[in-house]
Amino acid sequence: MKDREIFSGLITTVPFVLRLDGRSFHHLSRDAGYAKPYDPAFSRSMTKTTQALLENSGLAPSFAYTFSDEISLYITSPVFDCRVEKLVSIAAGFASSAFTLFSDVQNPLSFDCRVVPIDESRLAAYFAWRQAEAWRNHINGYAHKLLMDTGLSATAAQRKLDGMKSCDLHELAFSFGVNLAETPAWQRRGTAVYRLVVEKDGYNPVSQEAVRVHRRVSVIDEDLPLFKTPEGASWLAARLSSAGADV
After folding, report:
1. What is the DSSP letter of 9?
2. Under a CB-based contact definition with an 8 Å cutoff, are residues 116 and 20 in contact?
3. Cα 142 vs. chain centroid, distance in angstroms?
4. Which residue numbers delimit the tRNAHis guanylyltransferase catalytic domain (predicted)?
5. Which of 16, 49, 52, 108 is the most buried (most CB within 10 A)?
6. pLDDT for the residue numbered 107
7. pLDDT of amino acid 67
8. DSSP assignment, residue 11?
9. Which of 89, 115, 85, 80 is nearest to 10 (CA)?
10. CA of 238: how far to CAs of 17, 93, 102, 172, 242, in Å?
11. Which H helix or E strand runs over 213?
12. In whole angstroms, what is the distance from residue 76 CA to residue 7 CA?
């Protein structure tokens, strides 16, 4: 029956991105009572899930990026023999259980996952694309919530927003006293989780002396640059270089 496992031999090349999306998370937001358009508790659970994927999943990503209910993991070294079935099932299963623990939700939930083969020269373009989606979610989310606050249903509010350009959404929000350019950076640009090598105080038990040691730690960064700019691409390259540095 082994020959019936028709996709078990499907592999990817490195590097690649694993992109996870929460399945039907709009129901989760409603059932858990999360605030709209952004809830800090939900965001913290997503960030902790992303950090756990970086540190404990066995996938060993070099860099991770999250916004809304989406997580992208950039992986540069072969893991699990690069088997696609293994990669997507482990990533989705781990994310689902981690988010459940961190959010204390009462009902089962799940993430789906896909593999995106990508070389390093295209990395900035990939994350610029996802960051642009974070921005679109941001302006649409605020506009939708502001219209619902006037008494419109979710469907009626969305119908009014259909076809509106970004500048129109800006003006709509501003007419309600909300300047979208001044909302928290993590809402507009997403959150990154990556490793940095830092220097810490340590102790040498042989010489019985205090020493300075280097340790690799994970960092949660909620103040990101625009990845579509040269500065943003340089920022990404620097974080990846630090993630791979020897300790």
Report:
1. T
2. no
3. 20
4. 2-117
5. 49
6. 85
7. 98
8. B
9. 85
10. 18, 30, 30, 38, 6
11. strand 209-221
12. 23
Give 234's contacts (C-beta < 8 A, 6+ positions apart): none
Q: For the sheet containing 111-117, what is the strand order?
A: 111-117, 16-22, 70-75, 63-67, 191-204, 209-221
What are the tokens at 18?
């694993």
CA distance 111 to 22: 4
Q: Is 169 helix (H, G, I), strand (E, B) or coil?
A: helix
Q: How far apart are CA 18 and CA 82, in angstroms?
A: 11
Domains of the chain, residue spans: 1-133+184-247, 134-183
Assign 102 to helix, strand or coil.
helix
- Which segments in the chain show pLDDT lower than 70? 198, 200-203, 210-214, 243-247
| The two structure tokens encoding residue 53 | 């994927």
Residue 193 DSSP SS3: strand
Tokens of 123: 């990395």
Q: Which amino acid is at 17?
A: V
Burial class (CB in 10 A: 0-12, 13-18, 19+), 128: middle
Instruction: Give the length of the chain.
Output: 247
pLDDT at 245: 56
Per DSSP, the three-state class of 216 is strand
Q: Find out if CATH 3.30.70.3000 is the number for domain 1-133+184-247.
A: yes
CA distance 39 to 45: 10
Single out the residue of 213, 215, 221 nearest to residue 197, CA to CA: 215
